[in-house]
Design brief:
Helices cover about 45% and strands about 15% of the residues. It contains ten helices and nine strands. The structure holds flavin-adenine dinucleotide. Flavin-adenine dinucleotide binds near residues 48, 148, 162 and 171.
């Protein structure tokens, strides 16, 4: 874990692009409320296959042009062409965007054509080739191993390949097991991978959604945690309080161990992220 200790600890936030006018208004309020955490940037997700392209661009433009915060669009390459990606990169450059979260994404159901990029590493190489160092490139990392990787060593090998193509830092898939992150960092060190790897943290707000979503993306909800969360049944208040305790303690352990910050999957909600963030102590505070 030594390699991570040299990086300053920073917070960042992730939002998804709202689909309705009410969602847009809500997100504007959330951005103001969470802005008090002084995040390094606010990232906005992107539907693979370009399914949210317009809404992502609207949200990114709002953050970049109407708030004091730096926006970081996610950009997935599956199903895309070189031409369509270049067009988007030009748009982001014109908006003054300095950071992109570069991803492969998963082909949406019913969409057969994988397009001109196979992996996130192809996208990173393309962005470097077309735009040099215009953008700081974030990539995805998987402490519990990406579901399609044959095993964790193969996963690390392809992660290293992304770094070699030009990734500047990484954000992890969320997890609830601190050791999985610490082991992953040690393994990265052993493979000579040296870049900030920021833990992605998902606050706990809903048991069913968490279990369903985690099964889809290969994040493990430990059995003890599942059992406790399930036991709250309809008592939402107790579930939120317990979830907040568990995730706050996990974040503090990560920061104490030297993690270079926390990236919050905010789910466009203020309170769960704010309640956790306000209790954290940073080494560089
Ligand atoms: P890659 O790095 O390309 O890896 C995908 C798989 O292929 C892995 O199993 C890897 O081991 C393997 N692999 C990589 N390169 C090679 C190679 N050259 N040869 C053989 N195998 C290889 N999804 C969205 O749709 N929109 C988002 O906005 C979004 N944001 C995300 C943000 C974060 C921080 C994270 C962690 C995930 C996000 N995702 C998002 C989900 C992500 O798109 C999926 O997890 C997807 O399945 C993999 O994307 P990747 O960029 O990690 O792919």
């Amino acid at each position: 874990m030594n390699s991570q200790k040299k990086y300053p600890q920073k917070l960042s936030l992730e939002f998804f692009p709202p689909r309705t006018p009410a969602g847009v208004d809500k997100l504007k309020t959330v951005i103001t409320e969470l802005g008090g955490m002084a995040p390094e940037y606010m990232s906005v997700t992107y539907g693979a296959g370009g399914t949210t392209q317009e809404k992502t661009l609207e949200t990114v433009s709002y953050i970049q042009q109407h708030t004091p915060f730096d926006a970081a669009p996610h950009l997935t390459c599956i199903g895309a062409t070189h031409e369509s990606v270049l067009e988007l990169l030009n748009t982001y450059e014109a908006l003054g965007i300095k950071r992109i979260v570069a991803l492969r994404g998963d082909l949406p159901s019913g969409m057969m054509d994988p397009g001109e990029f196979k992996y996130a590493s192809d996208l990173i190489a393309f962005i470097k080739q077309e735009k040099g160092d215009t953008f700081h490139l974030e990539v995805a990392a998987y402490p519990e191993t990406h579901p399609q990787a044959r095993n964790c060593e193969v996963g690390i090998k392809w992660f290293k390949h992304k770094v070699e193509q030009g990734a500047d830092s990484a954000i992890t898939q969320y997890f609830y097991n601190v050791d999985s992150y610490l082991y992953f960092i040690d393994n990265c060190e052993r493979h000579g991978i040296d870049l900030p790897i920021i833990p992605g943290v998902m606050p706990i707000t809903n048991y069913e959604n968490l279990v369903r979503f985690s099964a889809g993306c290969g994040a493990e909800v430990p059995r003890w945690l599942k059992c406790r969360l399930e036991s709250f049944e309809d008592d939402k208040e107790s579930l939120l309080a317990f979830g907040q305790d568990v995730v706050t303690e996990m974040c503090q352990r990560l920061l104490d161990a030297g993690a270079p910050g926390i990236h919050f999957y905010s789910m466009n909600q203020t309170q769960p992220t704010l309640d956790i963030a306000k209790s954290l102590t940073f080494k560089n505070a």
